[in-house]
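Hey all, sorry for the wall of text incoming. These are the two entities for the joint prediction.
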Amino acid sequence: MSAVSPTDTAALAAPPARPTLARTFWAMMAREVRVMRKNFVSTFTRVIAQPLLFVFVFAYVLPKIGTGGAMFAQQGSGPTFSTILVPGMVASSIVMQGIMAAIFPLMMELTWQRSITDRALAPVPVPLLGVQKIIAAATQAFVAGLLVFPAVLFIHAEGQGPSVHIDDWPLFLLMMVTGSLLSGAGGLLLGTLIDPQKSQVLFTIVLLPMTMLGCVYYPWAAMDGIRWLQIATLANPMVYLSEGLRAALTPQVEHMPFWAYGSVLVLGTAVVIWWATRTFTKRVLT
Amino acid sequence: MTPPSPGPAIRTVDLRKTYSSPRGDVHAVRGVDLEVAPGEFFGLLGPNGAGKSTTIGMLTTLVVPTGGTAEVCGFDVVRRPVEVKRRIGMVSQNNTLDNDLSAFENLEFRGRYFGLSARDARRRADQLLEMFNLTDRRKGKPLEMSGGQAKRLMICRALVHRPEVLFLDEPTAGLDPQTRVNLWEVLRGLQREGQTILLTTHYMEEAEALCDRVAVVDHGEVLAEGTVAGLTETAGADTVITVVYDGPVPDTVRTLRDRDGVGKVEVNGEQVRVFAHSPDGLLGELVAAGSAAGVGVTDASQLRPSLETVFLTLTGREYRE
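and here's what came out:
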């Protein structure tokens, strides 16, 4: 290299900087947007592939060949399977994408070269950096949840279209927002508790059971024939999001009462955000 | 940014860091007192594992002290970390650049994190890239850069917001000699502009070449502190002559310690080490003493007073890089 000595010019002359917590916070969000824009194709593919495939198989292929999930649909005037599926798919997308959006960057930032230092030295308290990461992941989760709608509304076999109508907008937004925040915070929590190198385990023992048993493909009430499972799945946060979205999107399908899913989601989100910022701070500061 | 704070740029009092582990506590830093004045180029010199990086980690708020206090620009690093972070720039040993962003964007966003408007941040980024000859790497990813380029980009990143204190942790470790010398020029230039700099290094010659003052550290403690000239005049006033024989050290050698101008004589197996103010002719005498006693010399060295002899005098150990 042939470095010019900075004396020649003025390395120390710079426009005045006025950092405030809000400005720094927004600058960090702007960074996330820039990164997302750069990785648009891969992010978009990751987000849309799962709902697209599920809807294709469950709302198109299975009804066409006349088996499987069509069980709710085949009984006369009951809701079509895609109607059952819409809230579940939105919930599953939010949870999966929220967790992944939080964990993937941490795998680079907390291991190897600890590139988290780049932002840990920005003039904000470290817990606020954790909150920023949660909100960034939650934003991705929210968008991922919304992207499910075009997929499920348009891909289905004849006569198998979902009957979805948002009657209760505030409830719908509350579910979308708390669900997204809970997933982002959950991702940050898992990513800071688990050794990132062992995150494969996370997918098999956390994410897979969570989605398979998250009341995505059936309402919670439909499990009353398998009482032990019905009770066991109450430990799965995704159940409450699926049920809450069911209440907001397809109130005609049986769902939990608001006091149950509402309190778990709102309180759970608050607790997990608090917990995740603590574990994050402990990982960043040594 | 803010006017330079009165008082020292850095002050630590009995600063400590102990890491607890199942195999017992590790005392990385055990009671370090430092004071660095604004505009000073200060060096923490010591071998790997001496506690330098832990110390710099505490001063930059990323490592939480377990004892003592540290202030940067008058702000306590534990109680007021945000105020400290606003006033410092840090070049860490690892490549901690943001790999999701290009070289230019790394600087742009750093500027924005520190409150520059998007336009000012972009202008500042281009200005720094040009200044550090990185313009042709503008769109490059940090991972695709050479070690020297990445290090220069990290220095740019640390300077974006005009920090009052610049911290550099082993800035030239792993760089080739030419790149290292060029980086020294860059750092000297910054100092001429009045930048306060704290640098850690395990290279003696780096500390001698750059620093106004040096603290020699080992095992988490400061062994000596002062200007390089001052340290070599006091603690390391002696030239150190080391001779290794191929047999036991001749007894005649021990009598040298009574000679004027000789500080001490250390015998260790087949090796003798003589600390002397006036070393003229001593090396020849040591060789001759060997021949007289019928033992040959397998190795001989004479170190002029330097930080290396300071270290040797203070610890009795060879400096290990």
